[in-house]
Automatic annotation (TrEMBL):
One of its GO terms (molecular function) is 3-deoxy-7-phosphoheptulonate synthase activity. The keyword Amino-acid biosynthesis applies. Pathway: Metabolic intermediate biosynthesis; chorismate biosynthesis; chorismate from D-erythrose 4-phosphate and phosphoenolpyruvate: step 1/7. The lineage of its organism: Bacteria, Bacillati, Actinomycetota, Actinomycetes, Kitasatosporales. This is Phospho-2-dehydro-3-deoxyheptonate aldolase.
Amino acid sequence: MNAETHAGGHTWRDLPAAQQPDWPDQEALRDVIAELESYPPLVFAGECDQLRERLGAVARGEAFLLQGGDCAEAFDAVSAEHIRNKLKTLLQMGAVLTYAGSVPVVKVGRIAGQYSKPRSKPTETRDGVTLPTYRGDSVNGFEFTEAARIPDPERLKRMYHASAATLNLVRAFTTGGYADLRQVHAWNQDFVKSSPSGQRYEALAREIDRAMNFMNACGVDPEEFRTVEFYASHEALVLDYESSLTRVDSRTGNLYDVSGHMVWIGERTRQLDGAHIEFAARIRNPIGVKLGPTTTAEDALTLIERLDPEREPGRLTFITRMGADKVRDKLPELVEKVTASGAQVAWICDPMHGNTFEAASGHKTRRFDDVLDEVKGFFEVHKSLGTHPGGIHVELTGDDVTECVGGGDEIFVDDLHQRYETACDPRLNRSQSLDLAFLVAEMYRDQ
Ligand SMILES: O=C[C@H](O)[C@H](O)COP(=O)(O)O
Ligand SMILES: C=C(OP(=O)(O)O)C(=O)O
């Protein structure tokens, strides 16, 4: 049974859904949906509940959320190397934040499902040729040809299989010994010599070693450090896909979107009377909503009414993405009014999406300093209001790409062409991601 049959009558299909693909063949789409409905879940509803509890700790100020990964995952990047590099970067950031920030870190990837992208424009023009815009590998091809850009519902099945393969490897890495905290040095081996952030990380890893030896001597079982809790999240954008992966949990009778542990609704699809919010309201997964600079306090309060009527800490995460120049003006009123309403949401900072610009070379990029400044502004606002800066949400990769400028191992505008590999937005590379983790850990400690 899927979300619609269970909910009956009034469903997301009755409401306007922004950013949906223009599938040319509706019958082919129906066949794909029917097939997806027969596939097994990618995650277990109990895992979603566990993440909701962890996020409850974030909302209460007892833990910090690290959410990160690709802007857009690609089918041809489902390889052991890419997945390991991304996971390694997140594990290293997690170790830095936990140790230097002295806070438990909830680790959530933008991974195993981040295949669909909302776009500003429906078409793209190059050298006088106009084609439909690329909407993620779940919808059409990145290649700039007429054939590639036609939305093909068969791609939704490839999304499912790519997500399953990714999740399988992530689970193997995180429970099979690779993520063992005693491997803190091993995660850094290919990196330490060349980069300042790698060297800084190595010093921290030595301190972690000493702390672990101490705990060992005190009788703490080293097996405690063998596995790591890691969750998968993505934007719930293409509702035909998300809905066909929505199932009734046999334990509770509740609906869960079993395509990932956590899903979020993006800035372009969070209309209060739209299909995405209606869909999210019906599932029990932890939900994120992106809040950009045009969000009013009334919008935020209505989102809480719709998505978290029980005021359950961990159910709703607001991921703010104001831009470095606006965060100090726009965020305070939202946090103040939401707090005054008694709701306990988790507040997370996405310092990427409000800080994008086009370099003279035509590359879409972000300045590391702007990213950092938005996080600083986010911390300042929470400090002044006595609320909890709950975490960060970042677009990153474990590969040494040149997509964002700045960082300790500085990337210059003229370097952007060297390894500009993203299919959509610019990501922090491994060194920039680690730099950010160290700086955020300092901010958290000072808080
Ligand atoms: O990742 C976010 C959006 O999909 C992206 O910023 C939209 O980019 P566009 O403005 O190039 O369409
Ligand atoms: C599209 C995204 O962000 P936003 O909705 O905040 O623009 C994203 O995080 O991929």
